[in-house]
Each structure stands twice: as structure tokens, then as C-alpha cells.
Amino acid sequence: MEHTPITDSSRDVNIDIKKKLRAQKWKQIKKNKLLYLMILPGILYFIVYKYLPMYGLIISFQDYKPYLGISGSEWVGLEHFKRLFTSPDFWMIFKNTLILFALQIFVFFPIPILISLMLNEVRHSFFKRGIQTLVYIPHFMSWVVIVSISYVMLTLDGGIINSIFEVLGFEKVNFLMNADWFRPMYIIQVIWREAGWGTIIFLAAITAVDPQLYEAAKMDGANRFRQMWHITLPAIRSVIIVLLILKIGDVLELGFEHVYLLLNASNREVAEIFDTYVYVAGLQQGQFSYSTAVGFFKGIVGLIMVIFANKLAKRFNEEGIY
Amino acid sequence: MQKIKSRKRGLKGSNIFDFFNYLLLGLLGIITILPFIHVLGSSFATSAEVANTKFLLFPTEFSLSAYRYIFSTDTIFRALGVSAVVTIGGTIWSMFFSVLTAYGLSRRDLVGRRVINFLIIFTMLFNGGMIPTFLVVQETGLMNSLWALVIPVTINAFNMIILRSFFMNIPQSLEESAKIDGAHDFSILFRIVIPISLPAIATIALFYAVTYWNTYMHAILYLSDSAKWPVQVLLRQIVVLASGINYDGASYTDVPPPEVTVKMATIVVATVPVLLVYPFLQKYFAKGALLGSVKG
């Protein structure tokens, strides 16, 4: 319709059609008023608890005082951001966040792929189901439970790990109070909780692979490793890329609950990340505007990373996530 | 001859491959579950055994003293009660609004659904962050109320999208024939759509339930009254912060059991409800029901 050359008469027709379309739209909206009623509470929820906080981000440009509110508080421009970027804490948090992110991408991310490739090769379905049942369990445990179990196992006196060390003649290690052990502990807990669960999507994608491909490869003499490498892995490539994008988008979502539970005075220099910093500065010290600025910066970086990762995926002829 | 040989070698290689594959996966399964068994076993151990045994999995002598001890005050009963109320009430609350929203947005004849969808997905990529959300929770009068654990997380965008894609796959002819019979949208939803979507609805309900049972951060953020703490906060208090205060004033007359077993028993109590629903979870999610949702 829009491609027809515009002459006087066709323009009239166009306006006519537009009017009709609009009337039709209204009719449809009226017809579906019950549907709008259905989604109304949901929409209200998203407006109040998701979009209102986004509006609240403007306090990062103010010197927000709770009793003055957003409308009454003084504007200070980019002062809080300047303070953040010049603070010695900034580089500490930035580095810590980046390192945990790198551990997530390079250490954690490949593990569920590897496990699902291995599970896919299992031919006894009871064994496969049994292993799946076991490795999914930790995902449903809270971080408090995961960290608590780690604590009782790793504690210096009477923890099972140190008891084993003692029997083997090794020196005891104070895992919980030693900054060097924070990062290994963090990533091992992430693997323990999420590696099994992470296989679900890959396994579902693998079931879509045409079995004839394997037959053909077998005829050509490909062994099991080569079948994995040349058939299974390429078949789930797009799922891998989508999940990698989502993971990169979560760049700064390293699990506030998790890190906050592990954080203590002796590992702060390696464990403090943006979220824990926001919590301490904002809610424990009452610096609302400054901590909102820190959170805002984090959110923007995350958003840029998603867009960037998505563009990158499209460059490689993958679909991306939107 | 050449051919047979190579095939034989292939078979042999395949056997070795299988052996190591099964071995490694078996080990993986055992390692994943071993910490839970250790905790469960130790929680039933006697103080003598805790002191003498280096790596305890199954105690030789069962003792319930740790459990008797933690249940001798109402601290843990109160925490479990709070968690149960939040879990049951929260799941019903969240499911009600998630299903309504998901169904409305699943209908292709809803004008504006694309925009609304986008705005909901956008909240998964960007949000106001902790402090502005805290201020909104405060402004809406939820501070120090159990509603603070529920209302600010009413709809999980991801869960809603899974439900929506499930509803979208229901043949439209079903709804249309009901419409011709004069049914309105609510009765279509409750009489036709929900009954045939029960597996998906059960799955999402279980996800919500597990999330509510595990809620911890919101309680720390929004509840200052320790009497309203759910069991996860209590667990952190006892194990991670190792502050025995919560069990002080226990009306326990015997010699208190070793601290370790008390911690273990608290972990077990906080974990068991999730393990009880786990078989039901397992039944549904393994079907790959989630795959279609990856792309929103």
C-alpha cells in the first residue's frame, strides 16, 4: 500500500483506508477489553516495580535526601559518577568483577556443554536419567544452603576437607578466611550448583539432531570423538551462541546473594563486586545517590554488553536473541 | 580384511570411550551428591562420633539430639512457618498474575502486544537496580511486612514468557470454537486453556515455589524484625555468621549437642522441603519444555 505512487486520488484512498484501519483497531481493542483487564495487574506490576525504579535512577544525578524526595532534592550533575571513577575502590571492584566474569565465561560456561555431550553418548537410559537426577539437585538449593554446606565442610577445625588433609599429611588450609581461596571457592560453588542444570538446554537441542547423520559418519569410519566434534557440536552451535550472549549480558550479574554470603573482612579486596558495594554504600551507609550511580553504571555496562554480543552473533550469521 | 580390522579397532576404541564416559559421569553424580549425604549423616551423629571420625557419611549410632535441640525453641518453627506461608501464598499469588498476563499476551488479536512484550523483556536486560527498587518498596509501604517478599517479585518475566509461549502453541481453533459458543475470555482461559496446560502450569508453579522457599536477599533488605525472618536467613545466621544467639534460651536440659551437628541439622531442615518437591519438578522439566522459551 505504501509503495503505490502517490497521486491525488490514491492519497484520498490512502487516508480512507487509514481511517478504516484505525476504526477496525478500535473495534478490536473494544472487543478484547476482557483481555486488557487480564493483563492490567501484570502491567501495573511491571510499571511500579520495574519501570518506577528506572525512573528512580535520576537520584544518581541528585543529592537525594529521603525527606525531600526526588522532586525536592538538589541536582549535582555527574558528581557521584566522578567520585566513583576517581575512587580507589572503583578499580578494585572493577577488577574483581571482571575476574569473576572471566571465570564464569572461561571456566564455568564450557562445563555444561561437555557434560551434555558426555550424557548424549550414554546408551543406557536408566543411567543417563539417574545421573541427570543427581546433578540437577543443587540448582534447587538456595545459595545459603550451598554456602552453608561449603562452610561446614571447609572449616578449619573439624571440616571434612581439612580432616582429609590431616590424614594425608598435608597442612590444614584456612579456606574461609584466606583471600586466595575466594575465587576458587566461588567458581567451584557455581559449578556445583549450576553445571548439571545448565545441560538441560543443550541436551534438548541435541535431541533435534538427525540420527542419520551419525549413521553416515559411522559408515565413513568416524569414531565417537569425531562424531561428537563434527556432528553434535555444530548442531548445537546456535544454542551455545544464544546462551553465551545471555551470559555476557549478565556480565555484572555475578550473583549478589552468593558473593555477599562469601564476603568477609579478610577477603574483601578480592570479593567486593559492584552489587555488594552498592548494598554496603547504599543501605548500610545511607549514601543513596552515590550507590544508585554505581548501580546505574553497572546496569548500563550490562546493557551495552548484551547489544554488543547480539551484534557479534549476527555478524557470524547467527540469529541472536532479538 | 583391512576393513574388518579397522571396524574391530573402532569397536575397541568405542568400548574404552564408553568405559571412561560412564566412569566420569558416575563420579560426577557421586561428587555432586556427596556433600548432602555428609551433612545428612553428620546431623544424626553423636558427639563422640563427630569428634573421632574423620570423614563421616553414615553414622554408626543414630542420635536425634541435634534435632531435639533446635526444635526445643520456637525459633526454627517460626522461621519454617514464615517460609511456608511465603512459599504457598507467594506461589498462588504469582501464578495467578503470571497466567493472566501470559494468556492475554499470548493472544494474537491483542492490539499492542508486541510493545508490551518488548517492554517486559527489556526489564530482563536492564533494571533500576537495588537502591531505587528499595525506595519503591519503601514508598509502597511494604517495609517489614511479609508482602515485601512477594509483591516486588510478583511476575518473573522469564516464567511469564515460558507460559506465554506454551499458550501460543495451543491450537487457536479450540478458542475460536468456544467463542462461537459465546464463551468470554475468562471462561476460555479457565475452562479450556488452563486445563490443557496443566503440565506447564505445574512446572512454573514449582519454579516459583522453589524461589520463594529459597528467598533470602529480600528478607535481609526489607525485613528488620527478626521474628519475620524466613528459614534461609536463620540458616545464614547460624552457619555462616556462626552466631548461636538464635538458639539461646533453648529449653534444652541435657548437655547441648556439638555445634557442628546443630549446624548440619539446620541445613537439613532448610533443605528437605525442596527435596520433597524435587521428584515432581524432575518429572516435568526434563521434557525440554523450556527450550522454546530461550528465544523469548
Proportion in β-strands of chain B = under 5%
The strands making up the biggest β-sheet of chain A line up spatially as 1-2
* Second CATH tier, the architecture of the largest domain in chain A: Orthogonal Bundle
Strand proportion of chain A? under 5%
List low-confidence stretches of chain B: 1-8, 288-296
CATH architectural category of the largest domain in chain B: Orthogonal Bundle
Distance between the termini of chain B: 55 Å
User: Could you give the count of β-strands of chain A?
Assistant: 2
Give the topology string of chain A: H per helix, E per strand.
HHEHEHHHHHHHHHHHHHHH
Summarize this structure briefly.
In chain A, 71% of the residues lie in helices and 1% in strands.
Description:
The complex is a heterodimer of chains A (322) and B (296). By secondary structure, chain A is mainly α. Chain A has 2 domains: 8-75, no CATH class; 81-315, Orthogonal Bundle (MetI-like fold), CATH 1.10.3720. Chain A is built from 18 helices and 2 strands. In chain A, strands 1-2 form a two-stranded antiparallel sheet. In chain A, α5 (88-108) crosses α10, α6 (110-120) crosses α11 and α14 packs antiparallel against α18 (288-315). Chain A starts with 7 loop residues before the first helix and ends in a 7-residue tail after the last helix. By secondary structure, chain B is an all-alpha fold. Chain B has 2 domains: 2-63, no CATH class; 69-293, MetI-like fold (Orthogonal Bundle). Chain B is 68% helix and 0% strand. Chain B has 13 helices and no strands. Chain B has helices at residues 2-43, 47-52, 65-70, 75-106, 113-125, 130-139, 157-168, 172-180, 185-196, 198-213, 217-222, 231-240, 259-285. In chain B, α4 (75-106) packs antiparallel against α10 (198-213). Chain B is globular. Chains A and B meet through α1, α2, α6, α7 and α8 of A and α1, α4, α5, α6 and α9 of B. Chain B: Keywords: Cell membrane, Membrane, Transmembrane, Transmembrane helix, Transport. Chain B: Belongs to the binding-protein-dependent transport system permease family. Chain B: InterPro entries: MetI-like, MetI-like_sf.
